[in-house]
Design goal:
One of its GO terms (biological process) is mitochondria-nucleus signaling pathway. InterPro entries: PPR_rpt (IPR002885), TPR-like_helical_dom_sf (IPR011990). This protein is mainly alpha-helical. About 75% of the residues lie in helices and about 0% in strands.
Length: about 300
């Protein structure tokens, strides 16, 4: 992560302010390195970096996921409360992440308290929420309660297939995610760019780039056009594997044939270059980003934020 922090250093050195997207990347990297305390410290300092750096749902969600991965459920719940104080509304993914972690630690009563809380707030549970709680009851041998809860699951509209697939992707269970995807195809359900992007993001997070590329080739054959999010996800996946040439080729393809890279795409590639110690390339790319931002404010370029 030392390379990732050099991205932040570049922003300050060149007189530019980092944005929340850049800082979220750093927090995610710290989380992956199991440096949760440092990530939490950065979250507390973000607002001081200037306008546009206020922590958002992604910021807190990333830190909560990292805390849960380390078994630090108390810290995850502290972050949940901090979200509310910062006017950043927790979503179903945030709640489900903590509930799943609590259930794995056999803290099922605490998990059900959060389950009740999210429903009071009008946040509908998804398949991950229900599955985590059901598994938690089963781990404790509470079969009667598990049976009752299973009936509740079936009486609620929680079986949105994209949500199910995304839930498995978040858990890193790509085999189950792919089975849901194949079931959608078999049943004739609507499979669009969003569906493919969920699957591709899951593969990239698990560093299964061959599967990710096969998925994008398949969607292209079906006449679907990958969007900026899809390409940015692939660039991030290549960077994680140290395949900088492939990441840069994908970036060049975006600039030539579209969709055009946005500031998040630049941030992802900058982060990858720095983490792979390609500092000269990072400086060159940062200069290009500077020029594009300047052209945008002068009205001479199209640039999506």
């Amino acid at each position: 992560m030392g390379g990732s922090f050099s991205v932040l250093a570049l922003f300050f050195k060149l007189g530019l302010q980092p944005d929340v997207t850049t800082l979220n990347i750093l927090i995610r990297g710290l989380g992956h390195d199991n440096r949760v305390d440092e990530a939490a410290s950065l979250v507390h300092k973000m607002a001081a970096f200037g306008e546009g750096c206020k922590p958002n749902v992604i910021t807190f969600g990333t830190l909560i996921a990292a805390s849960c991965k380390q078994g630090q459920n108390d810290k995850a719940i502290q972050m949940l409360r901090m979200m509310e104080k910062n006017d950043s509304k927790p979503n179903v993914v945030v709640y489900s992440t903590i509930i799943d972690s609590l259930c794995k630690d056999k803290l099922v009563d605490e998990a059900f308290n959060l389950f009740s809380e999210m429903k009071r707030k009008g946040i509908p549970p998804n398949i991950v929420t229900y599955t985590s709680l059901l598994q938690g009851l089963c781990r404790l041998g509470q079969w009667k309660e598990a049976s009752r809860f299973f009936k509740e699951m079936n009486s609620n509209e929680v079986w949105n297939q994209n949500s199910v697939m995304e839930g498995y992707c978040l858990q890193g269970d790509m085999d189950k995610a792919k089975r849901i995807f194949d079931l959608m195809l078999k049943k004739g359900s609507i499979v669009d760019v969003f569906s493919y992007s969920i699957l591709i993001n899951g593969y990239c997070n698990e560093r299964r780039m061959k599967k990710a590329m096969l998925s994008i080739e398949e969607m292209t054959r079906k006449g679907m056009v990958p969007d900026t999010v899809t390409y940015t996800t692939l660039i991030g996946g290549f960077c994680k594997e140290g395949r900088i040439d492939d990441a840069q080729n994908m970036f060049s393809k975006m600039k030539v044939g579209g969709p055009l890279p946005n500031i998040h795409t630049y941030s992802v590639l900058l982060d990858g270059l720095c983490r792979n110690r390609q500092i000269d390339m990072a400086l060159k790319l940062f200069g290009e980003l500077q020029r594009r931002i300047q052209e945008f404010f002068n009205g001479g370029a199209t640039f999506k934020s």
